[in-house]
Design a protein that fits this description.
The chain has 252 residues and is α/β, with parallel strands linked by helices. It folds into two domains: 1-146, Leucine-rich repeat, LRR (right-handed beta-alpha superhelix) (Alpha-Beta Horseshoe); 156-175 and 185-242, no CATH class. Helix content is 37%, strand content 20%. It is built from nine helices and nine strands. The chain has helices at residues 3-15, 33-36, 54-58, 75-83, 101-114, 130-142, 161-171, 189-197, 215-230; strands at 22-25, 42-46, 67-71, 91-95, 120-125, 148-153, 178-183, 205-210, 234-240. It has a nine-stranded parallel sheet with strand order 1-2-3-4-5-6-7-8-9, with helices on one face.
């Protein structure tokens, strides 16, 4: 669709703005449509190749929205959107492709400073330094209602999985028990073992791990996990061969 068709569609939606609760866009708005959507509950925007975020980067007037899903949107733009939701946001799913540590830090800070009722979070990380683990620790401390956490890592050779797992075992609230870890490279078994060994006096976890691995490596991971399931530390688990399984995969 070209600009004129997108603009015409937005103008039509504005006429019915009071009735719209769910909106998905794969283009940047040409009008101030977002400002009219006073009853919007869920907003998804997919812009993996767009570099001019214009009006979206300045938008700050969401009121009751509970769900934001952003694909390819810079962290600072997403942070602005999240700040406008006040305390209502309970689900966030974020995939950022080519950005930086400082942007990721600001985004995580914005989440834990503005979303105390957060229950579901998916974070996709490309860059890594130790300060990100510290900010994720702050998020767990401040978002006590979080019950599902998804971490999707593009370059696990640089990512500190061991530091992440130690922090999760230390700071996760009693409500957090559903974990999904995606990576384009295998996560070391000793790092996963570190996580499971330190998961004490908590609700049994649901665990999904999806990485690039061989059949032999998958069997080794299952052999590691099964004793923890027998002990009741893990309620159920799923192991996949790549980082692209559905984040909403239901347990059987």
């Amino acid at each position: 669709m070209n600009k004129s068709l997108h603009k015409s569609l937005e103008e039509s939606l504005i006429k019915h703005a009071d009735t719209i609760q769910y909106l998905r866009m794969d283009w940047l708005p040409y009008t101030r449509i977002l400002s009219y959507l006073v009853n919007l509950l869920s907003f998804e925007i997919d812009l993996p190749y767009n570099k001019n975020f214009g009006e979206l980067s300045k938008f700050r007037s969401f009121q009751i929205i509970k769900n934001i899903k952003g694909h390819g949107v810079p962290p600072d733009v997403l942070a602005n959107l999240i700040e406008s939701t006040k305390i209502h946001l309970s689900e966030i799913s974020i995939y950022c492709v080519v950005f930086n540590v400082s942007g990721d830090k600001r985004l995580i800070q914005t989440i834990y400073q503005n979303c105390p009722n957060l229950r579901y979070l998916k974070l996709s990380l490309v860059f890594y330094d130790n300060s990100l683990i510290s900010e994720l620790d702050n998020l767990l401390i401040n978002c006590k209602f979080l019950n599902e956490l998804i971490i999707d890592v593009t370059d696990s050779q640089l990512f500190g999985w061991d530091k992440l797992f130690v922090m999760l075992a230390k700071s996760s609230s009693i409500n957090l028990f559903d974990f999904k870890f995606f990576s384009n490279k295998i996560i070391e078994l000793n790092h996963i073992k570190l996580f499971l060994d330190n998961w004490k006096d908590r609700n049994p976890m649901l665990l999904k791990i999806c990485t690039s691995m061989s059949l032999k490596e998958k069997q080794q991971l299952e052999d590691l996990i099964e004793p923890y399931k027998a002990k009741g530390i893990i309620k159920n688990y799923f192991i996949g061969f790549d980082g692209n399984i559905s984040e909403k995969l239901e347990w059987i």
